[in-house]
Specification:
alpha+beta; Uridine Diphospho-n-acetylenolpyruvylglucosamine Reductase, domain 2; Cytochrome p450; 2 domains; 18 helices; 49% helix; binds protoporphyrin IX containing FE; CYP450_sterol_14alpha_dmase; membrane; transmembrane helix; iron; iron ion binding
């Protein structure tokens, strides 16, 4: 009886597998080759996840600069040719970005995007993340960073020990949250310090779970994550925004808009998502920038020289009484810091260009000198890590070289080549085209500000400089890669005489 039942189940499984094999997608004339796979749903997912770069390089060698990979129940057509990336980025009408993000946003942040053509915050982000508005945010952030660093628990002239990532998360998350979402006035009775401590804790818990949520793990199966998200939602309600002071104009304007549209439930979830986008990559990149500076004394020396030069040029001094303030223009002139930040982003960011074809499309692949047919509904994918770690574009791509983005006269280096041809998209940590990060200008100044203030006011050293720290590939295609361990550092506030 049992044997009979088992045989029936086995026969059903074998026949469904055979049907699946027959029905599986076949390469049609003019289409990119399909990487063979034999496991239903998973496809090549496990090999990709284990080491995406090695996996993609292997396929590129075998199939050329464009090939289709099946994983997690979907087909992704990878384009590895950097000369074709600008073509994909430009074709925003047929190759849509936002449609690809709808399921992930729903799964992770629990709201539905307001249409495939509506940018984040209805376009307000683009307006408020540049020009004179951005200048006010930059100045606020500089002030808030100094408050956190110089007037809180870090204001200690004795050596203290902590994890570098923990330090960066605490400082950047607190200052960033205050700059965007303001603070409760003293009269409210809310203890802002305690609150920020909780916000950092909740943010970090959710952020660590982010890649698992993207992979489809139910939020309730991850201990405390649903609660952390719910805690954070509370701060983004209309009522709480009204109670706080110094809220950034962009947030106030968006809250007003959603109030008019009677979409207040959406407000807290969208703002939470924006807050996550603003913090997640920035914190991890700040960590890596400081880590590389601590590991490379020549980078620290060059950064210190540039910071001192800018202090002189702006007639400021570190007297421990007045705050240091560099404008965006001042910071734009700091090309050494620019190069350090660019080199950090080249190494730590795994950004992508993900697009879905809204209709059948012929993609011209430059290095193959021919076009490929892309079917309506197909997903096109580019992993910029392949360019960022390409030894033909960057010599010794695994190494941190602080001056990689500097010419010999100290000006920014922007010409990089492959096979003798200029690579236009040589550095894309912020993505490209319509999905290019709207917060990129702010992000770069935040990173510079943290480096400037820490180098000016603190002495730092890695406790174990020989310890090998690796980048965890768990967030491939989703931004900054976290370190596999949090290296311990010693730090103390410098005594100003
Ligand atoms: C080092 C820091 C940062 C990096 C590396 C980074 C990177 C990126 C990348 C690669 C994307 C595009 C995603 C895609 O194409 O799939 C993106 C989107 C986005 N970023 Fe950033 N980002 C950073 C900081 C920020 C900051 C500070 C903000 C906010 C102030 C921000 C807000 C956003 C938003 C809202 C989007 C979504 C845009 C959309 O869906 O249209 N990011 N970011």
């Amino acid at each position: 009886m049992i044997l009979e039942a088992l045989t029936t189940v086995l026969a059903a499984l074998v026949s469904s597998y055979l049907i699946w094999l027959v029905a599986k997608r076949k390469q049609k004339d003019g289409e990119p080759p399909i990487v063979p796979f034999w496991i239903p749903w998973l496809g090549s997912g496990l090999q990709y996840q284990k080491d995406p770069i090695t996996f993609l390089r292997k396929q590129e060698k075998k199939y050329g600069p464009i090939f289709t990979v099946f994983m997690g129940g979907s087909y992704f057509t990878f384009v590895t040719d950097p000369f074709t990336h600008p073509i994909i980025a430009k074709e925003s009408k047929v190759l849509n970005f936002r449609i690809c993000t709808i399921p992930t946003i729903k799964k992770v942040f629990d709201f539905t995007r307001r249409g495939v053509d509506v940018p984040t915050m209805g376009g307000l982000m683009v307006k408020y993340m540049q020009g004179h508005w951005l200048e006010t945010l930059v100045s606020k952030m500089m002030g808030n960073l100094q408050k956190v660093l110089l007037h809180g628990s870090y204001n200690n002239t004795e050596w203290a020990t902590t994890g570098l990532l923990h330090l960066v998360e605490t400082v950047m998350c607190t200052a960033g949250f205050k700059s965007l979402f303001g603070e409760y006035p003293a009269s409210s009775g809310v203890d802002n310090n305690k609150l920020h401590h909780k916000i950092v804790e909740d943010f970090v818990k959710f952020d660590k779970a982010f890649p698992l949520l993207v992979q489809g793990r139910p939020i309730s199966s991850l201990k405390g994550v649903k609660e952390s998200r719910a805690n954070m939602w509370k701060f983004f309600t209309m009522d709480e925004i009204h109670k706080r002071e110094m809220v950034y104009e962009m947030v106030e304007q968006y809250a007003k808009k959603l109030e008019e549209d009677q979409e207040l439930e959406q407000l807290k979830k969208e703002l939470y998502c924006v807050n996550w986008a603003a913090m997640s990559n920035t914190l991890l990149s700040a960590f890596w920038a400081l880590y590389y500076i601590l590991k490379h004394p020549e980078a620290m020396e060059a950064a210190n020289v540039e910071i001192q030069r800018m202090l002189k040029e702006t007639s400021q001094c570190v007297d421990g009484k007045s705050e240091i303030n560099f404008t965006r223009d001042d910071m734009a002139k700091m090309t050494v810091l620019d190069s350090i930040i660019n080199e950090t982003l080249r190494l730590d960011i795994s950004s992508s260009l993900l697009r879905q074809a809204l209709q059948d499309y012929n993609l011209k692949v430059v290095s193959a000198d021919r076009s490929y047919k892309i079917r309506k509904g197909d997903k096109l994918m580019t992993l910029f890590q392949l360019t960022h770690y390409d030894p033909e574009i960057y010599e010794q791509p695994d190494q941190f070289k602080f001056d990689r983005f500097l010419n010999s006269d100290g000006s920014p280096k922007t010409d990089f080549y492959k096979k003798g041809k200029v690579v236009k998209f040589f550095l894309q940590p912020f993505g490209s085209g319509v999905s290019k990060c709207p917060g990129r200008y702010w992000a770069v100044t935040e990173l510079k500000q943290l480096v400037i203030l820490l180098l000016l006011y603190f002495d730092f050293k890695l406790i174990n400089p020989e310890q090998e720290i690796k980048m965890d590939q768990i967030r491939v295609a989703f931004g900054s890669l976290p370190p596999n361990i949090d290296p311990q550092v010693q730090f103390k506030r410098r005594v100003i005489v």
